[in-house]
Amino acid sequence: AQSFNYYPLEPMLPHEGVVHLAFGLGKIIMDGERIYRFSPKHPQMNLPYSSATEFCENSQNMFFALDISNRSKLYPPDENYSLKKLEVFRADQENSLFFVASTYVPQDQVIRDTISLDGPRVITFANILKYNVFPLPEIVNELLDIGSRAFGTHVEVEFSVNLYRDPQKKPEFYILQIRPLVTGSESYEISIQPNDIKKAFCYTTHAIGNGVVTSIKDIIYIDPDTFDLSKSAQIVSEVEELNHLFQEENKNYILIGFGRWGTADPWLGIPVNWYQVSRAKVIIESQLNNLKIEPSLGSHFFHNLVALRLGYFSIKSGPVPDIIDWQWLRSQKPFRKTKHLKHLRFSTPLTVKIDGKLSKGIIFKPGSFK
Q1: CA 348 – CA 352 distance, rounded (Å)
Q2: Bond prior to 8 in cis (omega within 30° of 0)
Q3: Which of 27, 55, 171, 350 suits 126 as a labelling partner, its CA being 20 to 30 A distant?
Q4: Sign of the C-alpha dihedral, residues 228, 241, 313, 267?
């Protein structure tokens, strides 16, 4: 559990925190495998998957357990020696999924919050998060609040829970470790000053992520002068083609488009799959006068943003509108062009700064950040 969430989805707020939850031993979380992620302030909020099938494909399918089959064996001083990595169905055979699993019903293409039905088990923690058989969100919220006040900064807490179906056995919650929250680029305190905006071509108050990127020299953007939503499928093909070139060069780029990237509806944006934009380090969704669609942060995009610590900018109009300097972009000579895209390459890197605490993001013009 972490007291600050650098990748919140509305209506989540960054300071409400985030929990990474897994069935079995916590090594599965540390190894970066599939787990369940939720806001302790919004425990019943569904994950942003478009279908039950997609939920199943991205849910926890493995877990770590202790191998105690040979108790007389002398174990070496290796903490991983007695660990077994098993598939979730093994836990179902042991009748261990009552509190944590639901069932996928293929004929209805839905997930039912019970294990009394036949079908594949899905780790949803529904009994805990939806039906309150154990007050985990309340405990975590209080613990994060106490920890943050005691440390004077954001914290992360490792914990474990034992639950028993035997009513004579009480549930157990253990605090394993608590420490200040420091995770890679998320440890940066980012400062964006009003004067910085004069040096930038892009600024938003709707950014997700945190940190500074100084290694990108490329921008791929959809030309607003030729943008036609009815041509979104063709745009997908052109983006994939350019992305493949970046894969060969082992380089990253900033991607700018209109509407939603990764939408399933081509009339709401550009329906790319993740592999087609896999070299994008910063993804920007902008509005047009005739296309003002709220960002969706669709499932596969959101989960890749979190896993890869990518930057996300939403450019919105409003009382204090976000900014993209289209005039400056148009004035740059393209390194490559397709029918709908322009690829800019600079000799000097662009600097990207994202202040995750204030949800602000800025991209400086090449050479303008010092």
Answers
A1: 13
A2: no
A3: 27
A4: positive
Nearest-Å Rg of the Cα atoms of the chain is: 23
| pLDDT per residue rounded down to tens, the chain (370 residues) | 999 998 888 788 889 999 999 999 999 988 888 899 999 999 999 777 778 998 898 899 999 998 888 777 776 777 777 889 999 999 998 899 999 999 999 999 999 999 999 999 999 999 999 999 999 999 999 999 999 998 888 899 999 999 999 999 999 999 999 988 865 544 456 788 888 899 999 999 989 888 899 999 999 999 888 899 899 999 999 999 999 999 999 999 999 999 888 887 788 889 888 889 999 999 999 987 666 666 655 555 666 777 677 899 989 876 667 899 999 999 999 999 999 999 999 999 999 999 888 889 999 999 877 6
Determine the 3-state secondary structure of 320 from DSSP: coil
As a three-state string, the secondary structure of 125-189 is CHHHHCCCCCCHHHHHHHHHHHHHHHHCCCEEEEEEEECCCCCCCCCEEEEEEEEECCCHHHHCC
pTM for the predicted model, two decimal places: 0.70
Helices (H) and strands (E) counted in the chain, each on its own, are 8, 21
Instruction: Report which secondary-structure segment, H or E, holds 354.
Output: strand 341-355
Bridge partners of 148?
Answer: none
Q: What sign for the dihedral angle of Cα 354, 359, 360, 363?
A: positive
CA pair distance 185, 22, nearest whole angstrom: 24
